[in-house]
Design goal:
protein transport, Preprotein translocase SecY subunit, 67% helix, mainly alpha, globular, transport, SecY/SEC61-alpha, translocation, disordered C terminus, three-stranded antiparallel beta sheet, transmembrane helix
Length: 448
């Protein structure tokens, strides 16, 4: 406890770090306040039926990323998701399109151009999603739209407000990244998810204590299990496989360059949360498609399987998809040939491995070996909310036993703590932990 208080004092004594933390908290507060401001032309007292509908299926996933703004029909209803979708699309283009590959290699100027393309694409994606959201509101709001407002006026104003809201949220995220602490986009998503945790805990506690003393014991067991899963996720996110790299000595004039040993830290979970998001999106497609079929009765069993995340068949298919997408996304973002070429240019080599293609094959083989157990553990994490719900845990609290919610929360918190620790170490203070350094999802390579 004394160490913790001393660390807090050290953090608060650093003026730059103090300003960054306060700026982050202020910008997050602005975002949370905006998520409760209802769109013009909407009666907030008549949104109960819409809230229930928008918390199901893929809309529930969207609502989670928007911090509940989607179900509240707020000005931030689309949240940061259009920006994330645009960023993923541009990221894929940098892999497949030579023009974007060239921009990526141009340094700061290329990065600025890519950011401009991302912002333009965000506006287009947001406008399309805003139009779809208006249609969904008219269909599912149950009279929440004020008739006197006018249909055409409501569509125009809502599209403009939602697009402006998303761009403002994107601006908040960029300001948190520049002036605050941590990755702004990730923090905005994480705070939206974290805001649901106290209510979910309270609901679970109330339901368990209603059964008497035995219910309280079960609640404590659930909390202990939740902590164990969180620790497992921390190990998954921080887990790395280090490959030793030696750099040959070069003597230029009277100076010696190279001659050092370093390592390449390969992440056990290089794909992050993306495989779970992709798998969830795929699992929602069959039920959504068949719901529009004319012969719904014959497909009722099929719909039941893909609509019930506690169903064993659903969880088996879901787990397989997570494993497949883990390898797929890792292959997209991880290029061993590029790493081997960079090492060769800098006179680096892996002991016992020839430079060039042999090095690329070796790094790829190591990555495949460590990705396999990471993919299986990620699949277990993905199906844990369904298992928790099947064990009679409240559905809101069950979502925090794994899946997207817990993985994002743990990953973002680790990234933020890593940045705080880096600021402390730069100013010759002790880190946040005496037993080791915190490693986030994007830890740089360290010297050995």
């Amino acid at each position: 406890m004394k160490k913790f208080i001393e660390t807090i004092k050290n953090i608060w004594s650093i003026e730059d770090l103090r300003k960054r933390i306060l700026t982050t908290l202020l910008l997050v507060l602005i975002y949370r306040i905006g998520s409760y401001i209802v769109l013009p032309g909407i009666d907030p007292t008549a949104l109960n039926s819409f809230s229930k509908t928008s918390n199901q299926g893929i809309l529930g996933l969207f609502n989670m990323f928007a911090g509940g703004s989607f179900s509240r029909a707020s000005i931030f209803a689309l949240g940061i998701m259009p920006y994330i979708s645009a960023s993923i699309a541009i990221q894929l283009l940098t892999i497949a399109v030579p023009k974007f590959q060239k921009l990526q290699k141009e340094g700061e100027s290329g990065r600025q151009k890519i950011n401009q393309y991302t912002r333009v694409l965000t506006v287009i994606v947001t406008a399309l999603q805003a139009s779809a959201y208006v249609a969904f509101l008219k269909q599912q709001s149950g009279g929440a739209i004020i008739e006197e407002y006018g249909a055409s006026m409501f569509w125009l104003s809502t599209t403009i407000v939602l697009t402006a809201g998303t761009m403002f949220v994107m601006w908040l995220g960029e300001k948190i990244t520049d002036k605050g602490i941590g990755n702004g986009t990730s923090i905005i998503i994480m705070m939206g998810i974290l805001a649901r945790l106290p209510e979910a805990l309270l609901q679970e506690f109330s339901s368990k204590t209603a059964d008497g003393g035995s219910g309280l014991v079960f609640f404590l067991v659930e909390i202990a299990f939740f902590i164990v899963i969180t620790i497992g996720l921390i190990l998954l996110i921080q887990g790395t496989r280090k490959i030793n790299v030696n750099y040959a000595k070069r003597i230029v004039g009277n100076k010696q360059y190279g001659g050092v040993r370093q390592f390449i830290p390969l992440k056990v979970n290089a794909a992050g949360v993306m495989p779970i998001i992709f798998a969830q999106a795929i699992m929602f497609i069959p039920a959504t498609t068949i719901s529009f079929a004319t012969n719904a009765e014959s497909a009722s069993g099929f719909i039941r399987v893909f609509s019930d995340h506690t169903n064993p068949i659903y969880n088996v298919i879901y787990g397989i998809l997570v494993i497949v997408f883990t390898f797929f996304y890792t292959a997209l973002i991880f290029n061993p040939s590029t790493m081997a070429d960079e090492m060769k240019k800098n006179n680096g080599f892996i002991p016992g491995v020839k430079p060039g293609q042999a090095t690329a094959d070796y790094i790829g083989a190591v990555m495949d070996r460590i990705t396999l157990p990471g993919a299986f553990f990620l699949a277990v994490v993905g199906i844990m909310p369904g298992i928790a719900a099947a064990l009679n845990i409240n559905s809101n609290f069950a979502t925090f036993f794994g899946g997207t919610s817990l993985l994002i929360m743990v990953g973002v918190i680790l990234d933020t703590l890593q940045q705080i620790e880096s600021q402390l170490l730069m100013r010759h203070y002790d880190g946040l932990m005496s037993s080791g350094r915190i490693k986030g999802r994007t830890s740089p390579a360290s010297a050995q």
